[in-house]
Amino acid sequence: MSNFDESYSGQDIVPAQSILRKVPHVVEPELNLRLDAIVFASDALQYSFMKMRETAVLAGPGGKGKTPKFEIALLDAAWDVVNQLDAIRQLLNALLCAEAERDALTQRLFEFLETAKVLSNKMAHLNQNLTNRA
C-alpha cells in the first residue's frame, strides 16, 4: 500500500518474495532480528485482520448472528492489530533516521502509527485510567 488513505483488503503486507523474508547473512545480527520482528508483526497483523473479517462474516449480514462471543472475538482481534501496529512502530522507529530527517511518506506512516501507540498506552495503563475517570 503506497497511500495510507487506501483501505486494506487482506493482501500480504510483506510479500513472500520480499528480501525481508530471507535477509542476507551479511546483515548484522541486531538489524536482522529487528527485520525479522517486523515481518512477524506484519504476518500477525494480517492474521488478526483475517480473523476479524471471518468473525464478521460468521455474524451474518447486519450482525444478526452476533453474540457476546463474536464481540469478544472481534475485540480480541482488533487489539491484536493495535499491538502489532505499535510493535511495528517501535521497530521502525529504532531503524529509521531522526524525525527531522524523515521524508513525507515516512512521516505520514508514523503519524498513522501514532494512534496505535496511544491505544496501546491506554490499555497498558488501564487500571490507572479507570481510577482517573472515577
Number of domains: 1
Tally of contiguous helical segments: 4
Q: Which residues sit in consecutive blocks of at least 5 with pLDDT less than 50?
A: none
Task: Please bin the fraction of helical residues.
Answer: 55-70%
Large-scale geometry? globular
Mean pLDDT: 86
Distance between the termini: 42 Å
Given helix and strand content, the structural type is mainly alpha
Strand content: under 5%
Radius of gyration: 17 Å
* Order of secondary-structure elements: HHHH
Task: Characterize the main sheet.
Answer: none
Strand tally, please?
A: 0
Task: Compile the SSE list and pairings.
Layout: H1 29-59, H2 68-95, H3 104-124, H4 126-133
Helix pairs in contact: 1-2, 2-3
